[in-house]
Batch of 3 targets.
Target 1
Amino acid sequence: MSYELFLREQQLIEASKALLDSDKLRSKVAREEFGKLLKGYEKLFKDTRRLVRISDRNEAELNRIAHALDEKNAMLESLSSKLSKYLSPQVYKSIFSGDRDVSISSERKKLTVFFSDIKDFTATTDDMEPEDLTALLNHYLTEMSAIALNHGGTIDKYIGDAVVIFFGDPETLGVQKDALQCVRMAVAMQRRMRELQREWMGTGIEKPFHMRVGINTGFCTVGNFGSEARMDYTIIGGEVNLAARLEGICEPDGITLSYETYALVSDEISAVEGEPIKVKGIQRDVRPYAVQGIHDQDQSKKILRHETDGVRVLVDLYKLDDAGRAATADQLESIIAQLRAGA
């Protein structure tokens, strides 16, 4: 566009020079004034062309810089996305929003701590191939992590098959609501585990995972620990150890609470008190509470399971209509008759 404009202006200048050289301008004064005007216009034309060339170069440089910035932004977004997978979303958000400094610091806060692991993990997985074990463990951790994030939990770390999660930092709903969210999360996890157990058995896994959960509420030290070169956002303290100890005495597929947690959630959660235990680092006797109603009454009646050496029976009434139940009952009666005849 600028080239066409300059061409027309150049043609106009050439035409003006031709007019000046002709005899059409008879007045000397007119010729002199027209010559001055033409000379000024030529100078203006040259300055304009020079400015346009400078502008074009600047535009090209700006485009180059913008393209480079786009590439840098894309790279930063990619790195940011990858980095986010190593941090809890709440921590990631607080760092990138500037709410939290990346420095060695900690504070005392009342948190609700969740600790879980798989009962007899080593014995359960001894006969599994490493690839199958990796896929199964990653599936389990993915499912549990999704539930944790949906309930607002801060995922602290994975320790093999164990998971540590806490509520109350860097975001909190208040001590009572944090505790309630944590227990609700644990119940949702155990209910999902029941579904996963059926799925895993259906894929040929003979001994599906059974999770145990310990939950405790108390004052912990939370923050960044480590060195200036490498630090970890985590929690420490006796109350964290207590959550791990409660998990250790928990029944498979169950949830065990400390009294402190139970007192905060007792309006909504039913639990049965167990025998007091002593925990290293905690002076008081600890009263554990086993959560009841993890699998509601209707649900527990719809999953019929029996497993011993040489026998595995699993009837999922959710998937059977009336005709299917009748057919299954006939099949089971036939199996029973064969068993009795063989005896």
Note: The longest strand covers residues 211-226.
Target 2
Amino acid sequence: MAFNKMLELFHKNLLSDKTKIRSERIILMIAIASFIIHLLIIFFVNYGFIPYQTNSDLLKNPIAAIYTPFSFILVYEVYLLIYYLPKSITTYIIKQYEIITLIIIRRLFKDLSTLSLSSDWFKIKYDLQFTYDLVASVLLFFLIYKFYVQSKKRYRSLGVNEANGDGMARFIKIKKVIATILVPILVFVAIFSFVNWFVSSLNSNPSSDVSFMNINNIFFEQFFTILIIADVILLLFSFFHTAEFHKVIRNSGFIISTILIRLSFSVSGLLNTVLIVTAIFFGLLIIIIHNQYEKHIAQIEGNAGHKLN
């Protein structure tokens, strides 16, 4: 009983609707303020008011200032992912896909400030990457839309859900525990990752592990590693709720999709973009096939019910 009360208390303080609304307002204010501050820093650096010599793409062009508020919006998306974890697995997966898509959009804003408009467009490495990301962002938007449509389809009868009521209640409780634990872990990882990057970026040593070159990976590389662990734990506990083959395959497929996204942070260029698109396309195929299973089972149960009547 004490554990249940403590869980509800932490969950209410960290993941309630009230906390969600308050967090949204705070993040939006921080995002707007950070955009203005970034613009001012670019202005002061470019006009020599700040004697700071840098080759950073983020301090050359005002367009790059959009990168900063997008980073805070991504932080809020991470919070929403954890918020929806106890409520819906498919919404939780959609949030993963939205986060990686927003990371690509954020990268586009950064790359926009360094584009080289010339007849050698397809020979310049960074222009090629911009092209890959531009095409991928549209494709990912479409794939996420199709995934959302599939996630809303329901075929099983209410009787099936009622029969698994106790198991579902236990599974939701487990998801609440995992979500509540994830909040402080991810806050710690976010702060540690930023401080580590900031200190390393001030280091003039060119062999530093963390630099402006891999700024897109800050926090999110570790974040998706943590998600993989959380997904595996959820998969194992889901067996207490159901052992149906198609549901096990669906949940396992979602883990594979998350692993592919995590692997994308380890590579660059076209392979990075291909891995991300493949991850979401694979997740879409998994949920489509799962829904066909559900539809077929619902038809069989419906036909059996008619025969009994």
Note: Residues 2-302 form one domain.
Target 3
Amino acid sequence: MITSSQRAQHLNWLLEITQIPTAAGREWRVIDFIRAWVRARPDLAISEDRAGNLTVSMREARGADLPPVYITAHLDHPAFVIERIVSPSCVELSFRGGVMDEYFVDGAVTIWSTTGTRHAARLSGETPAPPREGVAPAFKHYLAELTDKHDTTTGLKIGDVAVWDLPGAEIIDGVVHTLACDDLAALAAALSAFDIIRQYKETARDVRLLFTRAEEVGFIGAIAACRDGTIPKNSVVIALENSRSFPHDSPIGGGPIVRVGDRISIFSPSLTEAIAKCAEALAGGPAIPHAREKIDRSRKWKWQRKLMAGGACEASVFYGAGYDATCICLPLGNYHNMADLAAVQEGTNTSPPRIGREHIGVSDYEGLVDLLIACAQDPRQGSSGKENPLGPGLRPVSAVGPLVERLWRERQYVLQS
């Protein structure tokens, strides 16, 4: 279904989108890209909810008698936000995301002004974060000194984004190395798949994209979408993520991962199984062969089915709110830009912790696009002539409510900051 020129375009979108500076609460550059992408396609519509989450839909969607399928991805990546201009050569930054303290020592960053100018800086140490209305500070604060003696903080303002100073995106031996795969690579895959789906309305059901804000600080955009009813209650939700790869468990190059759950919940069993069936159909078999079978090394399309026990994702929020929800993710290297992470965690690293580009496999990315297209087929008239098992929502009940309520209470302010 996908031509080589379309594959090339999907890869171009991946390289472009994953280099856009973004942070929780300051996702406007990625939002601008999506709005321009939709404007170039008159058959699509875009809307924004009260929290600033975006929904992209087809103006003439078929399969309206079935529950809509929402493919979701988040718009932010762990990064810095200017909280205070300290002097002509120094700013105070908050870091919005999860990175080990060891990686901030003498870290090099690039500060992006609202007008697009770049300013090189280096972290000079942590500084106390001010309290916020009686609530403990959610983010650590750092001072950053400009490194060019001719540069000044003129033109910078509170709310500007700073990212790690890293080389541009490139593909090396089938692996994409870039600033921010999490979750912008999934966002690129969602757009790429949707660009194909919209051309096959005759066989596709009502598929929509939801892009959420401030995931990296506690799923705030997703929580808002549930609270405000952005998604109809009978919807099927497929949350997309980039999850830390473990070489012997969830390797890069092993294909997209159908997640059965994360560290805080198990996802909808029926929906997870339905997506696994779609993956099996594409691959010609299960993720891991039965004990009575030999490994078929001739398969070109690969996939994985895993519990991601170390992290959490928006699927838990949607499932906990009563949606039929699950997750598909890309195996990710240098999770949250932390190079040599396993050794640093174990204390066996032989060199100081360093920041690096995140990376994913090109084949995994293309596989995710394929799987999303397969999931979008109307179960009554799948493109293969066989019934697609992705059925209607089940509206289960989960017990993640107290965590969601606490995160919303403490961090909803990020959406206005």
Note: The chain has nine helices and 17 strands.
